[in-house]
């Protein structure tokens, strides 16, 4: 049986990326480690695949960016941030849209491996179901953005979702609202679960009882926001926190159809700050994420990971900002 780079790594007690650097003549390898690797290479009779190496060289300036929903303007800003940094370092970026579909995401990852792209920035569709092992097994560096994946040891950049939801809910509580509904996203998404934790934490800190019927979940898309908001109104909330602005559009449509106005009939806060949020009348109170910076930091981390594949993983958490506008300010009686 022909020896593989994995066999060399196991015999020498190192990683595949270290073996690769030794075989490619990189200088930044401990001399003792280099000796272990070369001894394993000799013992196994390992021969690098020159064709594969050639393909890797050709693709070494191409990065993959896999987003979970390209129609969400949050990811538009993330993409721009990645492009800003990647372009300045002479990398090209290839964009993939998984559309919250695990199977589509899996096919894209296979393409990325087949094309031997230099690295991947990905917003995982599901923390449990997204499988990044194909990238790991092929030594392709990974940075996750916005959400976590079950694969350990990867760099990640995301918002402090717990704190963002806590800030939003605490603000509504400070305005005197007590029956605060929450329109969340799919349970498979880290962002959705963490924002629910923050919402509950604020209620608990204010000693306001959590009511399950004031909780609803969509899929981060506009139509689901409309459907779940229509259902939530049956519980008669006096305020609502929506977990992203795409669902907020659907939720606002539901309010209009019900003949309700914010903040006259109920308070309203949403995650994300699209340009239209400050232009509506009344204007929308939001939790603004640092989406552009998330993209920039992810690209910087990926560049570093490509150069230093064995360095410790970095988990960057950026603090969101509560931007108070008219929609959450309770009218004075």
What does this structure look like?
Helices cover 43% and strands 16% of the residues. The protein is α/β, with parallel strands linked by helices and 333 residues long. Strands 2-1-3-4-5-11 form a six-stranded parallel beta sheet, sandwiched between helices. The mean pLDDT is 91.
The largest sheet, given as strand count, sense and whether it forms a barrel, is: 6 strands, parallel
Mind telling me which CATH architecture of the largest domain this is?
A: 3-Layer(aba) Sandwich
CATH class of the largest domain: Alpha Beta
Q: What is the helix content? A: 40-55%
- The value of Rg in angstroms is 24 Å
The average pLDDT value, as a whole number, equals: 91
> What's the order of the H and E elements?
HHHHEHEHEHEEHEHEHEHEEHEE
Query: Considering the protein shown, what is the CATH homologous superfamily of the largest domain?
Result: Response regulator
Separation, N- and C-terminal Cα atoms: 82 Å
Order of strands in the sheet with the most strands? 2-1-3-4-5-11
List low-pLDDT spans: none
Counted by DSSP, the helix tally is 12
Coarse shape: elongated
Summarize the structure.
It contains 12 helices and 12 strands. It is an alpha/beta fold and 333 residues long.
């Amino acid at each position: 049986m022909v020896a593989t780079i994995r066999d060399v790594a196991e015999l020498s007690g190192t990683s595949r990326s270290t073996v690769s650097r030794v075989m490619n003549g990189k200088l930044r390898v401990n001399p003792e480690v280099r000796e272990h690797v070369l001894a394993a290479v000799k013992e196994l009779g390992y021969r690098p695949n020159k064709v594969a190496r050639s393909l890797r060289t050709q693709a070494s300036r191409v990065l993959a960016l896999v987003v979970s929903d390209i129609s969400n303007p949050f990811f538009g800003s993330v993409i721009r941030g990645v492009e800003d940094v990647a372009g300045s370092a002479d990398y090209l970026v290839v964009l993939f849209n998984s559309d919250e579909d695990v199977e589509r995401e899996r096919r894209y990852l296979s393409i990325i491996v087949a094309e031997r792209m230099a690295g991947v920035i990905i917003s995982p569709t599901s923390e449990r179901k997204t499988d990044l092992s194909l990238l790991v097994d092929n030594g392709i560096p990974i940075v996750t953005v916005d959400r976590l994946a079950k694969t350990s040891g990867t760099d990640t950049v995301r918002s402090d979702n717990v704190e963002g939801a806590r800030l939003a809910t605490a603000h509504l509580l400070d305005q005197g609202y007590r029956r605060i509904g929450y329109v969340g996203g799919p349970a498979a998404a880290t962002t959705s679960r963490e924002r629910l934790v923050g919402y509950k934490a604020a209620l608990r800190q204010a000693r306001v009882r959590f009511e399950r019927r004031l909780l609803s979940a969509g899929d981060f898309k506009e139509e689901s926001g409309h459907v779940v908001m229509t259902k939530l109104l049956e519980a008669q909330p006096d305020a609502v926190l929506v977990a992203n602005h795409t669902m907020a559009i659907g939720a606002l449509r539901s309010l209009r159809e019900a003949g309700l106005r914010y903040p006259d009939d109920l308070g309203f806060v949403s995650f994300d700050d699209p340009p239209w949020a400050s232009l509506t009348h009344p204007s929308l109170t939001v939790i603004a994420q640092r989406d552009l910076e998330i993209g920039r930091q992810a690209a910087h981390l990926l560049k570093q990971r490509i150069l230093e594949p064995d360095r410790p993983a970095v988990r960057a958490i950026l603090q969101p900002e509560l931007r108070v506008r008219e929609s959450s300010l309770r009218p004075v009686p």
